[in-house]
Amino acid sequence: MKLTMKWGLGALAALGLATTAVAPAFANKGLDEPFQAQFRKELAGKVVAYVPVAMNFDLTEGWWAGLKKELEPYGVKFEIRDPNWNTNAGAQAVTSLISEKPAVIVVHNPDVQTYAKLLQRAEKEGIYVIQINMGSAYRSTAFVGANWIEIGEKDTEAVVKACAGKSNKIAIVQGALSAAASAYTLKGVENVLAKHPEIKVVSSQAADWDAAKAKAITQTVLKQNPDLCGIVGFWDGMDIGTGAAVKEAGLTGKVFVATSGGGERKGACDQVKSGAFDLDLSYDVPTQAAQMAGTIKWLLSSGVKAGTVKGSEYTTLIPITKANADSQIACWNLSDFKK
Amino acid sequence: MRRLRFSQQEIVFVVFAALFAIFSVFLKGFLTTGNMLTLLQNVAVLGILGLAMAVVVLGRGIDISLIAALAVPPGLVLQMVQDGHGLGFSICVALALTIAFGLFNGWLVAYAEVPSLFATLASGLLLAGLGQSMLFQLDVVQWSDGMKGFERLGQGSVLGVPTPIIMFALACLVVAFLLRRTRWGAYIYSIGDNPFAARVTGIPTRPIIVLQYVLAALIGCFAGFVMAASVNSMPTRIFNSTLIYDVILVVVLGGIGLSGGRGGVMNVVIGTLLIGTMLNGMTIMDLSYSAQNLVKGVVLLAAVITDSFLNPRNEETAQQGDI
């Protein structure tokens, strides 16, 4: 009996020793996460093709830099086709990409129709299509971008509010007539104006996204209507001209200028600080790029068939005003972002 | 009996006067000092470019690369200042680039004997491409703090007259002096009139042609400075726009024949005024973009058709080198 006790104790002690000896070894040997290797395999060597309307401006450069930053470390390969504002060249680029079969095409549409059929074909061929900021009539796997109707509404609401108790005369500076972004924004403006019959639109003209034209139109309008209380502009890159005209007329602070853009520091925050714009709705480009990159990661790792799921990721807008134009995070800086 | 004949300049002036009168009577707020100044200010840059084009067209050439000269060197100044260089140094570099570009154009046309249309079409693409791929980070080069003071070239006013108008007037004076009061100006006219006769009489035709393109590039660059100062940035994408057609329009509409040798600064001024009046009137009327294009097209066609009715072309008037 004593012996068995002894043996038993000895066995227990041995067991205890063994446990204490084994347990740390067990903790030192990490646990394999079951999905990451597959994830890396799915991403490595995949090709993402990028077709903006043109490179060399803050939006498209920002998206490109953001996508590369997020996906290149995983071995994703990039291809860029720059049509430089030429719609035909863009359509050709998409057509040739369909036969090259990249995993993903990120496309920035010049209008609603031109690429629509091509994008549908691309998804039939098994290529995921992500549309950025300017969508086409075809709804693809994902749309990431600004809701132009919302931009038109918010800008107009701000102008209407600033006009309360004043002349109620406003002007609208549109972009290019062929661009969907401009037409959608105009719809948003109309939605708000329908609720405010007291507001009178004294001028609604297209300045072709051109700052010099925007300035010329605004100067003439201000000469005719010096009591103008607000201007709804459709893009901050163009409305630099609108703001300059208001400033030259000595009406800064009296005429409320609302516009929208990608939130690059020199084009947005600095302009708000200088008083050129009173409100600049930013569809923060780095966030859009991160959302696209996230979507691409999800799609590639899920193995879902292209064209079977379709969804939208509308960008949450950042209203830039004097209150936050000084903050570090309201705007982004292209040269830093590209580093 | 003397047949009634109008020159194109007179026809365009009549069209301008008629338009102006109609707008003054029917358009409230058109005939005010403020609006007149705005009208002029809005077309000042176009007018300066018209002068540059006129210098070349008078010598029987054409300079399609003018918009590149307008966009790239001033864009370079803004970019260099943004990157931390001094304003004065940047302007010097830009002027050197402009002169080099003008010399290159002139050499192509005068010595390599490439037709000016093709030479400048290609060289403009070259300069714009160089800017886009090597010089600028973005299409729109933004203003930076180092540019302080420079905006006075395109903003503000002197004695109530907006600066761009004064710049246009200055450019007019300089070009008029050059064309009418200097020997070089006389040479340009004689080359435009008959290049072979000019050469035979001992005029250094090739160097004068080079001079024309250098002048055009410099005036174009000056227009670019005024424009950049006026909108606080340089949208270099303007090279892809249809601005160059407007410039040719101003020149031809004003009555400077593309066959060279005829016309002067007054023609550019009249052409510019007509375009300015149309644009201003239509903006006040809040006409839609498409309607504006329609009206512009109709008025311009009317002016050109009237000209060809009143001054029909024949073997005698048509010159070699006509486009």
Question: What's the CATH first level of the largest domain in chain A?
Answer: Alpha Beta
> What is the CA–CA distance across the termini of chain A?
78 Å
Task: Could you tell me the CATH topology label of chain B.
Answer: ABC transporter involved in vitamin B12 uptake, BtuC
User: How many whole angstroms does the radius of gyration of chain A measure?
Assistant: 28 Å
Side by side, the strands of the main sheet of chain B go 1-4
Tell me which protein chains meet in the greatest interface and how many residues each side has. Answer: A-B, 35 and 38 residues
DSSP strand tally of chain B: 4
| Proportion of beta-strand residues of chain A | 15-25%
Note the total helix count of chain B.
12
Side-by-side strand order of the widest sheet of chain A = 2-1-3-4-5-11
For this entry, what is the oligomeric state of its chains?
Answer: heterodimer
Largest sheet of chain B: 2 strands, antiparallel
Given as residue ranges, the uncertain stretches of chain A (5+ residues, pLDDT < 50) are none
CATH top level label of chain B:
Mainly Alpha
Mean pLDDT of chain A: 90
The N- and C-terminal alpha carbons of chain B lie at a distance of 33 Å
What percentage of residues of chain B falls in helices of 4 or more residues?
55-70%
Question: Strand-and-helix sequence of chain A, N→C?
Answer: HHEHEHEHEEHEHEHEHEHEHEEH
Total domain count of chain A: 2
Summed over residues and divided by their number, the pLDDT of chain B gives a mean of 87
